[in-house]
Every structure is written in C-alpha cells, then in structure tokens.
Amino acid sequence: MKKKKNDNLIPPSSVKGEGKKQELILRQMETLGKLGHWEVDFIHQTLNWSEGVFHILEMDPSSMPVDLEKGYLFVHPEDRELATQHMKEVLEKGIRYDLECRLVTTTGKVKYVHSLAEVVRNDKNEPEQIVGIFQDITEQREAYQSLLAQELRLSTILQSEPECVKVVSPDGILVEMNPAGLQMIEANCPEDAIGQKVEKLVNPADLKFYQTIHNNALQGIQSSTRFRMIGLKGKERWMESTAAPLENQTGEIISVLSVTRDISDKVKAEEKLIRIKRNQEALINGTSDLIWSLDSNFCLIAANKPFLDVMGFLRGTIAKEGDSVLIMSQGEAFYEKWKGYYEKGLSGESFKTYERFISPITEKEEHREVFFNPIRNAENNITGLACFSKDITDLMAKRMELMASEKRYRALVENGIDVIAILNAEGRAKYVSPSITKVLGYSESDVMHMNLFDFLHPDDVTKIIKRLEDVRHIPIGSSLPSHNFRIKHQDGSWRWVESTITNLIDDESIGGIVDNFHDVTERVFQITAIQTQNEKLKAIAWTQSHVVRNPLARIMGLVDLIKLGTLSREEELRSLDHLLESAKELDYIIQDIVLKSQRVIVP
C-alpha cells in the first residue's frame, strides 16, 4: 500500500496519546543526561523544544512553539553563522547533522551543546521536518579546556626547563625530549633524536652507569649517576642524570623518565680542585722551606716533609704529629729560644725572626726568616700557631750580586743613548743621566739648574703640562703612552724627542716622575714627508677619478647597447669606433695619472 506524502512525519512530542510513563521516563533521561530534543517544521517554519531544552536554556516552556529565527537567537553570536551554514549544507547536500556550538541562556550563561539530527523528506526529496537532540557538554568542554590548559602549562614548563627532560622506552629508545635536551645532544630538530637508542650517545666507558639507572627505573627504583655523553656533532659533556619509573593508570611501568643536567663545568672544577690540592701538596713537600703548626701545648699538629726531616734529625727519631716541637738535644739555649718564640706567638702576636746558623744536616751556613702567626677559632680564641721558615740563603748571596749588577746598570744608564730624567711635579729635574749631553748638548749641571719648560717648544707647553698632571693620577709604576714633542738643543735648533713618563712619585727610592726620552727628529721628518706625499697622491686620485668616470661610463654604455643585439650593422660599427675612442681617452688619462704620481713620489 502506497504511503501518503506525510506518513513518515514524526508528530511533536506534545501530541496527546503518549503514555504518561514513557513521558516521565523521557523527562528523567533528559534531566539525567542533560539532554533535550527539538523538532523543526519547515512547512510551518516552527520550532518545538522538549523540557530538557528549556532547562538547558533556563527558559519557561510555555512559549512553544517559536519560529526558527527566534531559535537561532539563542546561538552564540560567534557560532551563529556556523550553525546556519551547517543547517544549509545538511538540507542541500544531505550530509549528517552533527554540530557542536555555544548557546546563550536567558540569564546570559554560555553553554556548549552537541547536537545530532535526522531530516525527514517527502517523495520529491524536499525537507519537511528535522528532528534532533542536543546534549549540554559544558562540563566536559570546561574539563577539557582545564585539562588542555594544564597540559599547556606542563608543556611550557617542560619546554622552558633548562635541564634535559626525556622519556625513554623500556628497550632504550628515546620517545620524547625537551628543547634543552635536544640542545645538549646537539640535535638540530627532534627528528634527529626521537626514535634513536639513547645508549649510542653515552661514552662506551660509562655505558654501565647509564644502564644501571635505566634498569633500576624499570624495577621501580629511582637512582642517579654520572656519565659522559657524546653529542651528535661529537662534543663530549659530563652529565648527571636521575631516572625514575613512569607508570600508566594501572601502575604498570611503561617507560623511564629522566632529568639530566650538564655538569661539565662542575667536573672540570672538581678536577681542577684535585689538581690544585695535589700541586699544593707537591709544592709544600717539594720546597726547602719548613712549614708546621702546633697547638697550645707545643705539640705538632701538621707539617710538611722538610720540617719532619729536620725535626727527626734533631730528635734522633722519626718525627710525627703529636710530638713536642721543643727539642732538648740541641742544648738549653736552643730550647729556651724556640720556646720563647712559640710562647710569644701563642700570646697573640704575629712576628718574624732572622736565624743564621750552620745546618746540622748539610753543615753549611744557612740564612732563614721564620714567621709566626696565631691560629684562631670561630670565637677568635687562639688554639695554635702556624710557622713558616723561609730559606733566604740564596737571597743573601744574590744580594751581593745585585749590588754588582746595580753598578753595571748605572754604567749603562749613564752611557746609553737614551736620556733618563727624574722630575718633580713642576717639571724640575732631580736627576738626569749623562747621556743628556749626547742628545741635547747640555751638561748635567746645566740641566739640574733648569726647568723642563725652559727649553720646551712654546706649542708643546700645554700638552706637557697636561701629561705631568695626568701621570700623577695613574697607579704607581704605571706609564703614559709615549709622546713626541720638541726641545731646544744647546746649539739653538729644535729637536723632536719621543718621551715615556712613569709615575714613581710615591716610590721611596725614586720620589719623582721618571722621563725616558730619545731623539727622533729624523724619523719625524721622514714621516712628515711621507704624509705630504700621501696627501698629494690622494688629491691626484680624487681629481682623476672624476675624469676617468666619463670615458668609462661611455664604454660601459656602448657595451650594454651592443650586447642587446638591436643595432644595425652600421650602428654597431659606429658604436665600436666610439668604444675605441673612449678606450684611447681612458688610456691617455691613466698615463697622465702615472706621470703626475711620479712627480709627487720622491725616489
């Protein structure tokens, strides 16, 4: 039997005849699931909602039915175009109605809903009715957004973490690594490392350490270790890594989470500290100086090997920590002298003594300076004494050599070609070397009665005043950069000298400004001549460069024109003639430049 045109229409939910029980169950289901169903009648352009829809929209259900335009007003303005476009495509293209959008309730709340619907069509496939449901998914959406925000925060923390954070599968494959880790292993991008064996990056000599913490993590044990890692580009680093098990929701260990930091600088510092300690021990035990410390009862606390050797020789037995440093075997005078030194130091006084004696070991004369310094605890109480005996035997021998060397140095200074003068702050000479006569013709006595400014060129006075002022403000022993200025020779001529001045005003042995200068007149004249030639050559180059540009520009233009290939044979020949003329002109200009340069440069 043939169905009537509208036999398949679904009657509105308000049609009488539905069982009260079914209606109650439907209402409870909608309330429990935060659901609502809706029906659109395209023939009458009406919209019907169930009580669940009104509950979601926080509305009074007595206003049903409403027109479609009013129904769309409950869709969030930003989602309205999406909703209308989706309805249009469902009706015109026959696609499934499946839409997620936001609704705005009568109280202004925004709710997320997910809607599914079916279209009822007539024999001509024209839509007559659409029946659907939608569910309030606001809580799920907000939970998802919260989870997404939390994941974003964790991701941000992970991405910005300065240490290497990585996830490794049970079989040792790198699953995930943050940017800091990728940088540590010299990976240009994640694809260079993800999916690779981590063990390939570990120095083979340290592989057992890495494998231990990885296997511990797979057994549920968190542990740490150090190992050397070799990056993808070959750089080796020391790493300190902590590995912990990563479990799923059922408590099964599915991977290993590791936090690794670069401790290369720390390891280098530790190695340096060890080297320093060993060097210090080598220095302390390798010197001929004696180093020891004692407590308030004159018992040895610590000492280097040379002191133990001396003390053992004097005692006749091997010396060790805890022994008394007061030795009776060398006589009462020796005993009392050193006991006095120790008591003086233990009373809180820091001092030094000079000892000259015949060594009982080498039987040679020795000279020593002995320093005594109290040892104090945190409460500033004296708990012991630190002693240091410096061998100055060689120093005393070299003192005589120094005196002889000083005589030789004085002879060199007095007979050298440089002049050495000591000036006071006002420029008056306190000392001048005899070489002043060779350089400027004056005698030493003449200069000692003169001031620097008496024979200084007037144009250089201001600069020299400033240099004498500047040198007084630099650290003792420091010098100002060398400076050239003019001084009048005894014969009346002006001589250029190069001068370096040094601040030794506060030096007890000098007490002035040391001026070291020598004659550079010929060099200054040569430099001046060269600079004059350079200026003339620059002028020629600047002038001739403008002359060269004209024929050069014509040549370049003619070449470009010929290269285009648009000229007739006759035009091309004329262009070549012009090109040759410009080249000859350019050749003439170059010859002229060469001739002018030769006139400027003096052979």
Tell me briefly what this model is.
With 603 residues, the chain is α+β, with helices and mostly antiparallel strands.
Please tell me how large the radius of gyration is: 51 Å
Bulk shape: flat
- For the secondary structure, the number of strands is 21
Strand line-up of the largest beta sheet: 3-2-1-6-5-4
Mean pLDDT: 82
N/C terminus separation: 127 Å
Give the percentage of residues in beta strands.
25-35%
What count of helical segments does DSSP give? 16
Helix content: 40-55%
Biggest sheet character: 6 strands, antiparallel
**Structural class by secondary-structure content:** alpha+beta
Residue stretches low in confidence (pLDDT < 50, at least 5 long) are 1-10, 13-17
Mind sketching the topology for me?
Elements: H1 20-33, E1 35-41, E2 46-49, H2 51-57, E3 66-67, H3 68-72, H4 77-93, E4 97-104, E5 110-121, E6 127-136, H5 138-160, E7 164-168, E8 174-177, H6 179-184, H7 207-218, E9 223-230, E10 236-247, E11 253-262, H8 264-286, E12 290-295, E13 300-303, H9 305-315, H10 332-346, E14 351-358, E15 365-376, E16 382-391, H11 393-415, E17 419-423, E18 429-432, H12 436-440, H13 444-448, H14 461-471, E19 483-488, E20 494-504, E21 512-519, H15 521-564, H16 569-600
Antiparallel strand pairs: 1-2, 1-6, 2-3, 4-5, 5-6, 7-8, 7-11, 9-10, 10-11, 12-13, 12-16, 14-15, 15-16, 17-18, 17-21, 19-20, 20-21
Helix pairs in contact: 15-16
Summary keywords:
single chain, 603 residues, alpha+beta, 6-stranded antiparallel beta sheet, 5-stranded antiparallel beta sheet, 16 helices, 42% helix, disordered N terminus
